[in-house]
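Lab notebook, page 48
Experiment: co-folding of the full assembly
Goal: obtain a model of how the components sit together before planning crosslinking
Operator: M.T.
Materials (sequences as entered):
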Amino acid sequence: MSLKIYNTLTGKKEMFVPLQPNKVGMYVCGPTVYDTSHIGHARSVVIFDVIFRWLKESGYDVCYVRNFTDVDDKIIKRANETGKDPIEISEKYIKEFHNEMDALNVLRPTIEPKATEHIQDIINFIEMLIEKRKAYYVEGSDVFFSISSFEGYGKLSGRNPDDMIAGARIAIDENKKNPMDFTLWKPAKPGEPAWDSPWGAGRPGWHIECSAMSNRYLGQSFDIHGGGKDLIFPHHENEIAQSEALFGKQFVKYWIHNGFVDINNEKMSKSLGNFTMIKDVLAKYHPEIIRLFLLSKHYRSPIDYNENSMAEMVSSLDKIYAFLERANKANVDFSDSDKNKMGNFNNLKSDSNSCYSGGESWAAFKENMDDDFNSATAIATIFNTVKEGNKLLDRSGETISSDNLKKVAEICADIKKMGSILGILSQSPQSYFKDKKDAALADGAIDPKMVDQLVMERTEARKSKNFARADEIRKELDSMKIILEDGTGGTTWKFS
RNA sequence: GGCGGCUUGGCCAAGCGGUAAGGCGACGGCCUGCAAAGCCGUUAUUCUCCAGUUCAAAUCUGGAAGCCGCCUCCA
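Observation: model returned without errors.
Model output:
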């Protein structure tokens, strides 16, 4: 059993064999920091976060690079509009991006390079391309990459340059030798950010930064390159052209591209005005609900964001946490366990370094993840495991045998371990449900003391067999969307 | 015009040649004073349609219909 990855380059699922044993170099295209991040950014980031976690879990030493494009026409435009410095703009949105991704429990990549901090690398890269006659400088204009100098052009996107030419939707630039040639370096207009170069003061084109920075941190060839589907052409196609034309060897072994997020079955677009920002989604839903949603469908397919789907996710996550809470109450103690040290599962130690290696459910989960990071089936495995655990607890009744307790402990350990890969179930069930209750109480419409009072009154009524009054109170609370649960340890309440 | 993808139960969604995972919802049962939660059972003899290959197809091939993405900044 080993990892298989769908490779955009070949259009097939392939066995994952890294270039160097036990080491993985992964580069993912990060955001252009000129505006607030939307749910689509979150999907890409969360998916590659899970891929990163899974590669590490699989024992690889992963160098994960995700860049920030911090010099670009859109940033300059935004700077001009707001009268701010472009650096101020990019710093603002980098900070915002980090805050939001931290909130979504996304691990920081190994390295987060910025284009503006690698201008010399970029200039060197372009100079070498010119030397090799893969690029040319047009006096008073740009440095262009010559696509006819690279015979593999179009291999990633399956496009034939001749078919695309016609310039149907691109204004033909008289300076280009071939209409499909693209800019490596462009001259700066007065007031624009600029760096000195052999071709005058200017700034890099979009594609070159990724070739230059991936080369700096991961070398001439590396294992995985990812990003959104829309980047396949032209961005990634052009990266391949630049890097392979220069180094004469395969740039990237596995290309991974994620699908888009639609909003109510429509593409996010400015004209529809339906850009859904991460901060707005975070204001409405628990971060783990958002992750669960983003991972509920295969990463290559489009996913539709809508209220109905999100409501389902709320029920789903509650179900898992409810089981963990139930197990906890049955004296399965995992409150201090974390993904590295299953500290309280002492009876589950399976090897000398006391690291829990996982039970049957974990084995199923591993198979799911190894199959092209199939998080949708991996989530199904979590639910199957929850059901198994609930069954054991149901059968046990009041007194659970030590044998069953051990089984439930293993199940809980597996569930927590699976959650740690998907970046969910990081809270204790108690704090999860407390947060949920606090959030529902936040508007101040309901006084929890009043609810407790009614619950106490109902308990008294039940004791004296005054069920009519007890039911009356249940009904009253139900109208406030409060559900009562009579458990062995007394009555608890929650919001529906 | 060129390239690529999708169509699975009321809804969401796996599956990629061996006889339909999982979630949400609904209904019946167990449990409960009544509930909730949980569990058990029922909710697709069938995967947009048509033809073909095969002992065997949701899965492969050909065709039709509908939907979507990229080719321009885009995760």
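Interpretation: The CA atoms of residues 104 and 287 of chain A lie 5 Å apart.
Next step: discuss with group before ordering constructs.
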